[in-house]
Amino acid sequence: MVQAKMKINKAYLLTIIFFFFNSFLLPIGLLYTTILTPVFYFALLFKQYKYILLKYVFCIAPFVLIHLKNGVVLQDYFVSLTLYFTVYIFIFIVYDFLKTRTYLDILFDRITNINFALTILALISLFTPFKTLWALHAVSAGISGLPRLSLFTYEPSYYSTLLVPLIFYYLLSISIHRENQKLPKLLMLGLSLCLSFSLGVIASIAIAISFVLLLNLHRLKIRRETVSLLLYLLLLGVLIALLLFIFYPENALYKRIYNVFTGNDSSGKGRTFEAIEIAYILIQKKSVMWGIGLGQIKTLGYDVITSFYKYDRNLIKVVTIPNAFAETLAIFGFVGAFLRIFLQLFLFFKTKVYKNYFQMLCFSYIFIYQFTGSFITNIAEYLIWLLAFIPYFTQFNKDNLFKTASSLNGQ
């Protein structure tokens, strides 16, 4: 019992660092999970992951050989190659954790409570000169200086992505298992999500829920609470929208939605079709099939991206492609982009994602989101992929729920 409690506390500490402080006081791009890679690597070796390094070399070697042949800036290339290895190790350490632990629901509760406390602290800080828990950069045309909740992470969209699995967990617990005592936790997370003002994340969540609901409507009809909860949330959203329209028509949400539909939302365009357009321009300069290589967006992409957006080069020193799929296309070409989607679909059927509501929601969300934002080394994204492919929350298995509901209805 004592040993089990120590394991939970250790996992609790690491989870808090991952969710809230992974980039705290570190230079942009550096994470504590990155620094801990050697520790994670040797821990995996002790857990019989003997060929983990060999597997990485085997998978990346064809791309490395072709990229080196086509020509790259070596320093940037090998720095990025090392960074990708740290992400690869992180994926395995989380995979091992999820396969061998049984208390993720406890961690979810604790994370949600801490997140809410920090959100309240952030709201209080709005009335002080210290707004370090908020991102204040321009969001869209006509919307500048809008506070967006990011807490101690480096970006609101990254922060809100971390909340996604928790939101799905509580939504399913309430709607399917009737655990109404968890409704406050869902509302806590909903508040933080709204304050992040990450419309890409919110839209992807809404699409994922709608898709899974429609796909399983024939099963979920035996659980009327599921449909009822979603209808209540929809009505609440409509009511809030009407109140905003009547009393505050110039609000930032309406402005950004207007900018999206009129094509003036620079953030939205930059994270979607413009990102793919830039990626295609880049691979034409090196190899359409194999891409420009790791770390080369920083150099080769600088001229292309600054010219594309007509940036002032005296002000812009670093450029990125803020779209995970587009970045994959730029770095690894059509071969890499194809392998990315193929692997996702292969694992979808291999791990039978479609048999579990939680896994389906996670998969649907992150599959959509990769085309609307994120980046290829985003560990929050890989966490959701892992939760989609590992059958952790078996209480949300479709067959078990269907049998239970049928027996209840029979009584």
TrEMBL record:
Major location (coarse): membrane
Entry keywords, A to Z: Ligase, Membrane, Transmembrane, Transmembrane helix
GO MF assignments: ligase activity
Topology in membrane: Multi-pass membrane protein
Localisation per UniProt entry: Membrane
O-antigen ligase-related domain location: 187-339
Pfam family, one: Wzy_C
Domain of life according to the entry: Bacteria
Transmembrane segments: 12-43, 49-68, 77-95, 115-136, 157-176, 188-217, 229-248, 329-349, 361-393
InterPro entries in the record: O-antigen_ligase-rel_domated
KW Membrane (keyword) present: yes
Keyword Metal-binding carried by entry: no
Name of the protein in its database record: O-antigen ligase family protein
Species whose genome carries this gene: Pontibacter populi
